[in-house]
Amino acid sequence: MWKRFRSNMGAMIGVVLLLSVIVIAMIAPLIFSDGPWQMVQRPFLAPFAVDGLPLGTDTLGRNVAAQLAYGARVSLLVGLVSTVVALLIGVPLGALAGFYGGYVDEGAMRFTEFFQTIPNFALAIVLVAIFEPTLTSITIAIAIVSWPPVARLVRAEVMSVRTREFVDAARLAGLSKPRILIQQVLPNTVSPIIVMASLMVATAILLESSLSFLGLGDPNSMSWGYMIGAARTVIRTSWWLSFFPGIAIVITVLALNLIGEGLNDAFNPHLSRKGKA
Amino acid sequence: MTIFAVVVSRLSKAILTLLAIAILNFFLIHAAPGDPAVVLAGEAGAADEQMIEQLRERFGLDQPLYVQLGKYVAGIVQLDLGYSFRQGAPVAELIADRLPATLLLTLTAFVVSLVLGIAFGVAAAARVGKPSDTVLTTMALLFYATPLYWLALMAVLVFSVWFGWLPGFGYETVGANYTGLERVLDIGSHLILPALTLGLFFTAVYMRMARASMLEVSQLDFVKTAKAKGLSDAVIRRRHILRNAILPVVTLAGLQAGQLVGGAVLTETVFAWPGIGRLMFESLAARDYNTILGVFLVSAAMVILFNIVTDIVYRIVDPRIGARS
Prior knowledge:
The complex is a heterodimer of chains A (277) and B (325). With 277 residues, chain A is mainly α. Chain A contains 12 helices and no strands. Chain A has helices at 2-6, 9-31, 64-100, 102-117, 120-130, 135-162, 165-172, 177-185, 190-213, 224-231, 240-267, 269-276. In chain A, helix 2 packs across helix 11 (240-267), helix 4 (102-117) packs across helix 6 (135-162) and helix 10 (224-231) packs antiparallel against helix 11. Chain B is mostly helical and 325 residues long. Helices cover 79% and strands 1% of the residues of chain B. Chain B is built from 14 helices and 2 strands, in the order ααααββαααααααααα. Chain B has helices spanning 3-31, 36-45, 49-58, 65-77, 91-126, 131-144, 148-162, 180-217, 221-228, 233-255, 257-271, 276-286, 289-317, 319-324; strands at 83-84, 89-90. In chain B, a hairpin with a 4-residue loop joins strand 1 (83-84) and strand 2 (89-90). In chain B, helix 1 packs antiparallel against helix 13 and helix 7 packs across helix 8 (180-217). Chain B is globular and about 80 Å long. The mean pLDDT of chain B is 83. The chains are: A mainly alpha (277), B mainly alpha (325). At the A-B interface, helix 4, helix 5, helix 9, helix 11 and helix 12 of A face helix 1, helix 6, helix 7, helix 8 and helix 11 of B. Chain B: Residues 99-314 form the ABC transmembrane type-1 domain. Chain B: This is ABC transporter permease.
């Protein structure tokens, strides 16, 4: 499987891009010890106008390169944590629905459907606006709007695995139902969940940046969406202020999507060959 | 089930969903930090004690929670979405004023993205593995990763600021007072950039789906039969593969309606498009919760209505579905 993933050029490009973003996020405090909020020069400096400020300064004279590096931390953190939280909601719900069926399934699916009908970005806006924008509220809001597809996926996977012979064998061996679900069924649903999770991190990063763009970011942490939102009014004179953070988002999201697709092809070689025929 | 029965069952389900959202809204107001009356009044009313008192009385905030809930839901059933103290008008009126602009924008973006997405997807599938397929799929991958609002800003910068080809701001030329055809053309030219930038992300989504679906269907046995009959590739693609491959794309398009409405908030913000998305953005800065929740409810209603329409179209396009259920 790993071999198939490695031979996928797109996926490897994704890994390299994502690793670069992660490294930048990790060493941000080392290179830019002043932090992203410190004024370092006069405002609106173009890229390369002054030595040491490769991307220029923003409307308040802050170092754009430092802001980008710190923004990577927020994007990755929110993307990752909100995905984990969404999995914590979606996996148990989908697993119970798929495994027990009947009323449990009916109830869980109605609940999921309700959340799927609500326009998810609008719900995220409402949640963050009402509970005050902080990293925690943003992360939870994104998780709340992202879990339904997970629940549906896990339910479908569990339903198909449940009828397999080894599950019958486990039942005959006298294992309890919860134990069969956790030890026998769920481990067999891991690969599609991993694929979905990697794509969810990408979507979460887009959502976070959109919220910050609208002014719903955590006021205490620098984020790419905030940078674009703050530079929106000066786009005519200083286009680079909104250009670079956008490129950073595209690179990060693209990397995650490439990795997700690579994982998908690696887990399902049969499907991928069919696609390329 | 006949189409009529489907419509009735879907509509009753839709009403239940909207009621659930209204109840959710109610609890959100109460979950917000601070006095619900102050929350409802927004920042503008926070200073005025008398108005807060009136609000408390009007919403019965001194009464048990279930009475309050009843009053709130009863209000919404009568299309009373509350009052925006910021804008000095009922929320329902504010939304009704701005809804046409949003409908124009989202429907245009939807049609454009569906047509372009299917066209590019079919084109890419027909040239699988060739350079043009690689170019198209790479483009789709890029647009799929691009934030809508950023693409919109860049479009304004390039086509409006640098080249001056298209207006990048507003719904029509202010003060021009065009009438008739001139006005239509004026609005149309203002519509191009917002609709395209909102549509491009979805074009990418539909294109990927259409391409995958075309490739999948082309593996099926009936395609081999058609080939064995001696039909040309072009005819097989158009008459046999496309018709079957298009169905999952339509389903997906229906499911994406919510995203489209969410995207409209961002697009309208960038282009100062006077729709309900822009209204929501303005209300965020003003902490006008009544309006925010009202827009939320109406956008959910739009999505539900849209899903019902897609469902019906789907049943007409594919009669097998009606027969199965």
